[in-house]
Structures are given as structure tokens and as C-alpha cells.
Write a structure and sequence with these properties.
By secondary structure, the chain is α/β, with parallel strands linked by helices. The protein has a single domain, classed as Rossmann fold (3-Layer(aba) Sandwich), CATH 3.40.50.9100. The protein is built from five helices and five strands. A five-stranded parallel sheet has the order 2-1-3-4-5, with helices on both faces. α4 links the parallel β3 (71-75) and β4 (97-101). α3 runs parallel beside α4 (84-92). The longest helix has 15 residues, at 27-41. It is globular, with a radius of gyration of 14 Å. 1,3,4-trihydroxy-5-OXO-cyclohexanecarboxylic acid binds at residues 10, 75, 77-78, 80, 101-103, 105, 112. Catalyzes a trans-dehydration via an enolate intermediate. The record marks 17 as: Transition state stabilizer. Belongs to the type-II 3-dehydroquinase family. Pathway: Metabolic intermediate biosynthesis; chorismate biosynthesis; chorismate from D-erythrose 4-phosphate and phosphoenolpyruvate: step 3/7.
Length: 145
């Protein structure tokens, strides 16, 4: 199985930004953690990574992924809360997509409690730190049956 992990805006700043919320670890630490945990789930899982601060680049990547992957785990960052274009991109492909968040967006500012992108996804996982991504990959696997 082959999965794509997409990280949206400001997630390249992990380890530097709001450490009290997002922790001390960097995006490279996140990638290493996901690769390590995927190996434990199944030696044969391939996982690719993409991060961008630009909405259009994320949309292009979702379109490209359509025939290349078995599913996407996406943390759209702040685009979660207002990007109908990313919602439409997810709706445009046949892929299973799980939305993840490092922090629990439901116990933060009111604007974070609304996700426009989650409506296009199988589901949303929020608040488990880096493990949100692992739970997301497990959700994709289980959903495939
Ligand atoms: C985030 C939550 C978003 O509200 C925020 O804009 C982010 C990160 C999270 O992973 O907790 O950039 O998606």
C-alpha cells in the first residue's frame, strides 16, 4: 500500500512555532516517526510526503495523487477552516482522504472548530499530536477492509 501525507501551511515551522501547542519536534522528526510507525504496521507500506504553504500547490498534488496512491492523510493547517478549493480538490479525486490535526482544534479558538475540508474526507482525527497521522494511516487501511 502506498500513502501520501500532505502538510499544509506553517507545518514546515514545527519545532519553532507555538511549541506549547505543536511541541518541540520538527517536520523531519514527524516524517521519521511516520516512516518508523508505518514499518511496524506493515513492512510493505510506502509513504511519501509533501508540504506546501501554497493552496494551489496542495490542490495540484491532490490531483496528481489520484491514480498514484491508495489514500491521503492531509493536515491542511489553517486552510482547513476556509479553503473550499481544497474541499473541491478532495471531492475531485477517487481517493480516500483522512484529515488530521496535531492539536485538538475543537478545544481551541472558535474559528478552528469549523472544518470545510473534513466534509470531503472519510473522517477527521484531531488532538493526538504526531499520532494523529498514524491513526489516520490506520483509518485508511481499515477503511479499505
Ligand atoms: C493544525 C490546526 C490548525 O488550526 C492550524 O492552523 C495549523 C495546525 C493542527 O495540526 O493542529 O496550522 O492543523
Amino acid at each position: 500500500m502506498k500513502f501520501l501525507v500532505i502538510n499544509g501551511p506553517n507545518l514546515n515551522m514545527l519545532g519553532k512555532r507555538e511549541k506549547g501547542i505543536y511541541g518541540e519536534r520538527t517536520i523531519d522528526d514527524l516524517k521519521d516517526y511516520i516512516k518508523k510507525e508505518c514499518k511496524i504496521i506493515d513492512e510493505n507500506i510506502v509513504v511519501d510526503f509533501f508540504q506546501s504553504n501554497h493552496e494551489g500547490d496542495i490542490i495540484d498534488k491532490i490531483h496528481e495523487a489520484n491514480t498514484l496512491y491508495d489514500g491521503i492523510v492531509i493536515n491542511p493547517g489553517a486552510f482547513t477552516h476556509y479553503s473550499y478549493a481544497i474541499y473541491d480538490a478532495i471531492m475531485s479525486v477517487q481517493l480516500d482522504v483522512v484529515e488530521v490535526h496535531i492539536s485538538n482544534v475543537h478545544k481551541r479558538e472558535e474559528f478552528r472548530q469549523k472544518s470545510v475540508t473534513a466534509k470531503a474526507c472519510i473522517g477527521q482525527i484531531s488532538g493526538f499530536g504526531f499520532d494523529s497521522y498514524i491513526l489516520g494511516i490506520n483509518a485508511l487501511i481499515k477503511n479499505k477492509g
